[in-house]
Write a structure and sequence with these properties.
The radius of gyration is 18 Å and the shape is globular. It has a two-stranded antiparallel sheet. The longest helix has 21 residues. The protein is built from 15 helices and two strands. The chain is mainly α. Helix content is 62%, strand content 2%. The two termini are 25 Å apart.
Length: 281
């Protein structure tokens, strides 16, 4: 039981990708993208304390991704069950129609999932993480497991890049930068911090948030109403950031909580260490 590799395991593309430090930038991009789906972002704004517990929310999301990627099968199933239980108790009210719906509706869960997977792929590939198209398709297909853990039917989730692109094309007419999206945008630009940390927020966080925003697709920039930066310039910034972050020793990065990768390596052995060069194996 202790040697259980979980749902993905060291031979998966997901195992290697999710250990990359650019996942933090990708996660912020996902938040920006998710905010453009009004029914979904209402669920966040109406049911979340993200304004007061900004870092707690980010860490809970990172903990879920880390558990489902590097934890045992039992731990991943337990994390998924916890998310499904919480979602089943939460509802959202449409302020225009008064309609009441649950945050666990498949259309909402699917948008969150696809925005995350697309963000992880786009940011990591543009920042220099080596992935062929076949490996990118495999990553999308592998993460149908993650979609199932939050309550989606796996066969209704995109399984490759073509299906993922088709999904975004289909859903684009539903997207808008409403008041809730503006609230998320403002939060990501200026998350609440202790007064002593304001200089660090301006120097470090703002740069990361702006880079994540810049990596959004052109239609997202149009909806937010800010000029879209030139894609080649964004790719250069992503590559430069990737080079810098990947220079930090992995063991040092993985010492930060919640230490999922180190625990997986303790459980499975040093050969389980995630690394980009292992993707093609």
């Amino acid at each position: 039981m202790d040697a259980d590799p979980g749902f993905f395991g060291p031979s998966s593309v997901t195992w290697q990708m999710h250990g990359d430090p650019m996942m933090w930038v990708a996660g912020i991009r996902a938040l920006y993208l998710q905010a453009l789906h009004p029914p979904t972002v209402r669920g966040v704004v109406q049911n979340s304390d993200f304004r007061r517990d900004a870092w707690g929310r980010l860490m809970r999301t990172a903990n879920f991704v880390g558990t489902t990627t590097y934890g045992t099968t039992e731990a991943a199933e337990r994390a998924g069950s916890r998310v499904r239980k919480i979602h089943s108790m939460l509802g959202v009210t449409d302020p225009d129609t008064g309609e009441r719906y649950g945050v666990d509706e498949p259309r909402l869960l699917l948008w969150v999932h696809c925005a995350e997977i697309d963000s992880y792929l786009q940011v990591l590939r543009r920042s220099g993480f080596p992935l062929t198209d076949a490996q990118a398709d495999r990553y999308i297909r592998e993460n149908r497991v993650a979609a199932a853990l939050v309550g989606l039917e796996p066969d209704r989730v995109p399984c490759d890049q073509d299906e993922l692109a088709a999904y975004f094309e289909k859903v684009r007419p539903e997207l808008a930068a409403g008041p809730e999206a503006r609230e998320v945008d403002d939060f990501l630009q200026r998350p609440p911090v202790h007064p002593l940390l304001l200089p660090a927020r301006a120097l470090l966080w703002r740069r990361v948030a702006n880079l994540a925003y810049a990596a959004l697709p052109p239609y997202a920039h149009e909806l937010f109403g800010r000029p879209a930066p030139r894609p080649p310039a964004v790719t250069r910034r992503l590559r430069a950031t990737g080079i810098i972050l990947r220079c930090v020793p992995a063991r040092l990065r993985w010492q930060l909580p919640p230490k999922h990768i180190l625990r997986a390596m303790d459980r499975l052995g040093p050969g389980a260490r995630p690394a980009p060069y292992k993707v093609g194996r």
